[in-house]
Amino acid sequence: MALMFSLFEIAGYERTFCFPNVLYCYRLHAGNTHANEPGKHIQLEAEYCVRNRQLLPIV
Questions:
Q1: Which of 4, 5, 12, 34 is the most buried (most CB within 10 A)?
Q2: For the CA atoms of the chain, what is the radius of gyration?
Q3: How far apart are alpha carbons 59 and 10 in whole angstroms?
């Protein structure tokens, strides 16, 4: 997410769009951090941190 948001800002939001088709689905298994509660919690904390960063200045 951190990389994705930075690229959106660099490209300009007017040049981005949402692709409606699903391109990839993650498999859920015990070794996957998406599949257990501690891993989900860490990912949500990281997402919160990224989404609350200050925007880059427009040049």
A1: 5
A2: 15
A3: 10
